[in-house]
């Protein structure tokens, strides 16, 4: 089931088009990646999804229906700029926010305590936000976004500023929410997180969609330009192979740039004739490489 659908959505401010005909669909139990450099249109898109601003053209549907105020109960939002009040206790403001989303006082308190236990910080219940570290303030913001068990969750740079342990904790939590059926619109500059979490993506640049679709299918359309070669000894003559554009020595072998995938077989044959091979991989392009190419090409 499509939880969230944007169809040819446009937003214009005076003479500037902030979002130009973006279309995407987020299924039930899916994490959808929304990517782009600063100013690309991501935040404007998320604000339209949240009903904070309205599109000038196009439609946004939630479970097949247009926006109405009751939808606030099924939506959660973690903004990039965290917005919890520093001098108010965690319990008071998160419970209040949950009640604004339609929860009873009792259910809000029960859910908050569950999430504090989940993040192994139950003693933060009576602490003020300003008493917590930046990373723990961020976790409280995440709890505020999910405490009412939303069907649709908007995450904007959810992992920024977190140490690796807490990044893994939040990633595992996001996956759990996905597996329970939550539909998540996920925006970040960290491409490795998108590769791990998202099945489908949209890349925006200067308000326009430059890449869209299934991540695996997108990767299959871009050439493989790197061979990783692990060897027990030196290999001579790799630079002379047709299609090889660069050879770098690594700790356990070579990283080789190629302009045509056919060069990979010649690399393997050359290496096998001179050394023992313990790794050979024609690497698929990373999302970071695809992003740079897509955004660069759209500027040409």
TrEMBL record:
- Name one matching Pfam family: ABC_tran
Recite the UniProt keywords alphabetically: ATP-binding, Nucleotide-binding, Transport
Keyword check for Nucleus, yes or no.
no
Instruction: Identify the PANTHER family for this entry.
Output: ABC TRANSPORTER ATP-BINDING PROTEIN, ABC TRANSPORTER ATP-BINDING PROTEIN NATA
Q: Which organism is it from?
A: Paenibacillus solani
Q: State the coiled-coil residue ranges.
A: none
Instruction: Supply the InterPro entries for this chain.
Output: AAA+_ATPase, ABC_transporter-like_ATP-bd, ABC_transporter-like_CS, ABC_transporter_ATP-binding, DrrA1/2-like_C, P-loop_NTPase
Q: Which residues form the ABC transporter domain?
A: 4-231
**Would you tell me the protein name for this molecule?**
Sodium ABC transporter ATP-binding protein
Recorded GO MF terms: ATP binding; ATP hydrolysis activity
| Family designation | Belongs to the ABC transporter superfamily.
Keyword ATP-binding tagged: yes
